[in-house]
Amino acid sequence: MLVGLVSRLTWQKGIYLIIEQLFNICNQPIQLVILGSGESGLEEKLREAEWGNKGKVCFYCGYNEDLSHEIYAASDLFLMPSLFEPCGISQLIAMRYGSLPLVRETGGLKDTVQPYNQYTKEGCGFSFANYNSNDMMHALWEAINLYYNDQASWKAIVTNAMKKDVSWKQSAEFYLGIYRELRGE
Questions:
Q1: Which domain covers residue 139, as residue numbers?
Q2: 105 secondary structure, DSSP code
Q3: Total domain count for the chain?
Q4: Which helix (H) or strand (E) holds 124?
Q5: Which of 17, 40, 135, 177 could be disulfide-bonded to 128 (CB atoms 3.0-4.6 Å)?
Q6: Is the pTM higher than 0.85?
Q7: What CATH number does the domain containing 42 carry?
């Protein structure tokens, strides 16, 4: 399982949660690829993570448009543990490519990523509510377990994600409904 992350490396984006759980992440049957730049301390921690975990962690410092699309396309899971995210577009790009987002339930991430429901088989990704690394790891374990033990459900979630309508048409209809309700129609 390949887990991708393309992001600015700042405290807002939840990179500290990843660093805090790096030992546990590297002990999972996954590979982690990160593309980004930002706070020098975070860049250094990620360089150290790559150096100490060859074959498990790959860090590309900087920004590269072509490489970002390759990461979206190649990854099975896309990690976005943001502290806050007013909108977020990376999760939408990931879903288009069939990479399931694993997000913290905040702002636009909560609005656009419906967590997988094992009973109804609905959802288009995975999420966690509390901003802490243990909850992030729990969501990651859930995703890993599903990926390796129920490929039929995994493929169904990928299909859900790729079909998700995030167009302006849907938003416009929602706001039109509110307008009509306020007018008493």
A1: 2-183
A2: S
A3: 1
A4: none
A5: 135
A6: yes
A7: 3.40.50.2000
